[in-house]
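Example 9 (inverse folding). The structure is encoded as follows.
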């Protein structure tokens, strides 16, 4: 998973020589080259273009950036590009004397999904090897499905997400010493002392309000004004809704409707999608909206969690096709919709407000950003568990329960789950606001901010044998 030091516009912070910058896949690709063209995939407005632009301009004398999304809305210069010679001709009309050679010329093709056929062209551009290329895209999975001749082994797709909580700490100048101390505490299963815990919880609650979208984080750092932060979030939320029309004009309103319903789904007891609410059809079924769900997930603006009723390792063997949960990709978007400019519900732990959906959303986005395929447990007799993940070291399923209130140690469904012999559960976690790390049987209780250190174990297929 691609991690970056920070996504703010503070250039001097990015230029501090940190290993967390120079060791990113973008830097390695631009420095060392590759047999494949690197494509950075992820939702719009999460900073893909900024980080490529920043790293590219540092390394190449000739930097050429083409926004294919804007081209499609305007001149359509690259529409219908037939072959590499045709591409070079069109490129020369805007790049001119900036076209040098591979070692000093970087061509950045931004938002390549605007012209899916250009994904095929990448194969021939790489074979020709005239310039260095790097590409970004949103809705990339959808674009690849629409491409008749896929580029195959000529591309490498790296998934990027908005800032996770650890990156939010970096952006707010939290020192590495503190973060490393917290990481060691998590690994050793010991608690932070009370002052450090309180500091971490204060930052975590601010992350619930701000989220990880770069524009919102920038506004928070610059102004600490919730109105400014919410304005940035509103712009992105409306952009995500508007993008649906670029994908499928006939189903635009249905996609928008599902997206708008996500917060209400999360406020329901079971939190899963109710298909009959989408178009007010009583007999609606999941398969009728498969394309819409695919768009929301593959474009990166929603995270999906699939149901499992009889869990077995690996979880993909047990997933249900008919039940799922959807979460917004960014917790700040959710808290804007739920609380607007009020911050007391989150910062002051208002007893009258149930923050369950907020805490679930942030845990969901953290786990997804760290590379976990997500599932949840849904059993009519034994209840529900919010998240299930694979543990390749233990060859077991690991349940993760999220609690936002004081009753963090009451979890009948989790107890039933871990004690079911057929499931072979070896460990589970409860995440809450509680400071102390404790263990009761197979269940370990952790403060919720420790989710930033949850990293998947290495899948067997990636181990050297």
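The amino acid assigned to each position is listed next.
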């Amino acid at each position: 998973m691609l991690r970056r030091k920070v996504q703010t516009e503070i250039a001097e912070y990015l230029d501090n020589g940190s290993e967390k910058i120079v060791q990113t896949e973008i830097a390695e690709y631009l420095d060392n080259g590759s047999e494949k063209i690197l494509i950075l995939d992820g939702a719009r407005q999460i900073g893909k273009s900024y980080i490529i632009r920043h790293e590219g301009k540092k390394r190449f004398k000739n930097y050429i950036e083409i926004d294919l999304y804007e081209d499609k809305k305007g001149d359509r210069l690259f529409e219908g590009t037939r072959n590499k010679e045709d591409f070079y001709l069109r490129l020369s009309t805007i790049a001119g004397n900036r076209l040098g050679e591979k070692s000093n010329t970087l061509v950045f093709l931004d938002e390549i999904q605007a012209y899916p056929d250009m994904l095929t062209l990448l194969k021939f551009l790489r074979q020709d090897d005239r310039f260095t290329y790097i590409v970004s895209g949103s809705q990339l999975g959808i674009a690849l499905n629409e491409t008749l001749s896929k580029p195959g082994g000529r591309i490498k797709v790296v998934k990027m997400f908005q800032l996770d909580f650890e990156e939010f700490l970096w952006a707010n100048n939290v020192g590495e010493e503190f973060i490393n101390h917290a990481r060691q505490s998590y690994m050793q299963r010991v608690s932070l002392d009370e002052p450090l815990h309180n500091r971490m919880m204060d930052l975590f609650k601010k992350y619930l309000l701000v989220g990880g979208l770069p524009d919102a984080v920038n506004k928070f750092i610059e102004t600490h004004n919730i109105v400014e932060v919410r304005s940035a979030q509103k712009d992105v939320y409306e952009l995500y809704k508007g993008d649906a029309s670029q994908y499928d004009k006939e189903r635009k309103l249905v996609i928008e409707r599902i997206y708008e319903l996500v917060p209400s789904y999360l406020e329901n007891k079971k939190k899963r999608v109710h298909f009959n609410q989408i178009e007010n059809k009583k007999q609606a079924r999941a398969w009728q909206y498969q394309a819409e769900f695919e768009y929301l997930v593959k474009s990166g603006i929603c995270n999906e969690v699939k149901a499992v009723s009889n869990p077995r390792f690996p979880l993909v063997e047990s997933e249900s096709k008919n039940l799922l949960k959807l979460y917004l990709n960014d917790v700040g978007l959710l808290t804007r919709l739920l609380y607007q400019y009020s911050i007391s519900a989150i910062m002051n732990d208002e007893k009258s407000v149930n923050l369950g959906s907020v805490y679930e959303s942030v845990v969901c986005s953290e786990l997804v950003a760290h590379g976990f395929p997500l599932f949840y447990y849904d059993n009519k007799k034994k209840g529900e568990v919010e998240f299930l993940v694979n543990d390749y070291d233990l060859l077991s399923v690991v349940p993760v329960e999220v609690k936002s209130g004081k009753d963090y140690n009451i979890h009948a469904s989790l107890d039933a789950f871990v004690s079911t012999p057929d499931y072979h559960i070896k460990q589970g976690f409860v995440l809450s606001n509680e400071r102390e790390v404790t263990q009761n049987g197979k269940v370990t209780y952790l403060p919720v901010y420790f989710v930033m250190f949850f990293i998947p174990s290495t899948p067997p297929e990636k181990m050297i044998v």
